Amino acid sequence: MRAKIQVDHLSFYYGDKQALFDISMEIRERQITALIGPSGCGKSTFLRCLNRMNDTIPGTRLEGRVLLDGQDIYAPGTDVVDLRRRVGMVFQRPNPFPQSVFDNVAFGPRVLGLYRGKDELEEIVERSLRDVRLWDEVKDDLKQDALSLSLGQQQRLCIARVIAVQPEVILMDEPCSALDPIVTLEIEELMKRLREQYTIVIVTHNMQQAARVSDWTGFFWLGRLVEMGPTGDVFTRPQQKLTEDYITGRAG
Amino acid sequence: MNRRYVVQRVGFALLTLAALLVVVPILLVVGTIIVRGASAIDWEFLTAMPRDGMKAGGILPAIVGTVLLTLGTALAAIPVGVGGAIYLAEYARDTWLTRLVRLAIINLAGIPSVVYGLFGLGLFVLFLQFGTSILAGSLTLAIMTLPIIISTAEEALRAVPTEFRTVILSLGGTRWQAVRYVVLPQAMPGIITGIILGLLRAAGETAPILFTVAAFYLPRLPRSPLDPTMALPYHLYVISTQVPGMPEEIKYGTALVLLALVLSMNVVATLIRSYYRRRREW
Lengths: 252, 282
Fold this sequence. Notes:
The complex is a heterodimer.
Chain A: E1 3-14, E2 17-28, E3 32-36, H1 43-49, E4 60-68, E5 71-72, H2 80-86, E6 87-90, H3 101-112, H4 117-131, H5 135-138, H6 151-163, E7 169-173, H7 181-194, E8 199-203, H8 207-213, E9 216-221, E10 224-230, H9 231-236, H10 241-247
Parallel strand pairs in A: 3-8, 3-9, 6-7, 7-8
Antiparallel strand pairs in A: 1-2, 1-4, 4-5, 9-10
Chain B: H1 3-37, H2 43-47, E1 50-51, E2 56-57, H3 60-91, H4 96-110, H5 113-127, H6 134-158, H7 162-170, H8 175-204, H9 207-210, H10 232-241, H11 248-279
Helix pairs in contact in B: 1-11, 3-6, 3-8, 4-6, 5-6, 6-8, 7-8, 8-11, 10-11
């Protein structure tokens, strides 16, 4: 398994306040990497460094390198629009646009001009909806308002919206924290299937979730990466005392 | 009975009275105008030129003038107003320049309308030599309308959740695509409401058109934007104060036409707003 993303000595600052301290890690291709840690430990900030979403916040600064397939995404001349197509993102709350189901999935291909002709667009939409197992539930009425779907369906729709632009990596920022347990399991099943095609990085503060779905787990504490390794090892034989305390509920 | 409840009863009664008092003037104004003006309204009144020193015939040129002025105002004020609002809500960082712009908007809103009239006379009629014309009048009204359009449009844009912009950026879209495809459509009802409120005010104003476009008596339709024209608010002022022996009926009839024009625009605004409000929840 080769490294899809390689992070080299990454530090990140909001103004004068340092949020991430010298983080290095490898994110392997077609694996699910979970980032765990208490609220405010920097895991979401780290996630947003991977597709340069922090660029939109004024007054932030970054040191170190983030390599996607060996290319530094912070190098001058990087096409940020193309980077964000390759590294898609799913957010905490399901946030479909208040438009039809079809328009939601078609949004990315439309703004990026990724298709030729109406047929191809319809094909992309169908394939994306099939990938997230939403197609059978919505195929009879693609024109229905996306907001009329259940929350779980909405979150799958948001994942389909990301898949429609054919990304290589999908970043998920606590994608289940607004969902009930049953829907959460659905999304987790979906992630395991998506793993066959995509590299997935998920931020979660639900440790059971990390243990259930991920292949690799990184533990963040106060802006530092304390430990990273295969999920089984991190949960059963943590190398660091702090990791063990957190996982067993004594810290955090 | 407990003294606290007595106080509450009296308090509520006074508040109710205050609320009802708001309704009284509007009923009286609209009622009087309808009762005394309705008999003046007929086909000729709406479609003919005035005759006999405006004491007979119709008010067509004034109606057409007001409609043209409102359209001209819309043409000038909407692109600038909505464009400015998009800049302020979506692009502007908090710098001294944007603070200056906001200060200007607040102050524009506070300027008395007669001052706009004199300003329009100075800038458009005399300096730019547009003469007393629909062009000069529309531009003057547009400047007066701008602060209303900008501030309501900016508010409507800011009400669209930030999340949508973030999502679009994360899909590889640009800021402009976020505005164009999601934010603007979502903010549209609010923006349209602001536009109509602004135009309503423009349609009913007398002072800004007094020196810039309005003709005292001009019984023909304008042929170009550089022509002067009659307009309903000014016409009403003229026939109410400047023409001796004017039949009461015509005055009230003219007021009724102006009122109907303005109120129907208001109804349209309300319909648009409630239509969109039913459709969106997030």
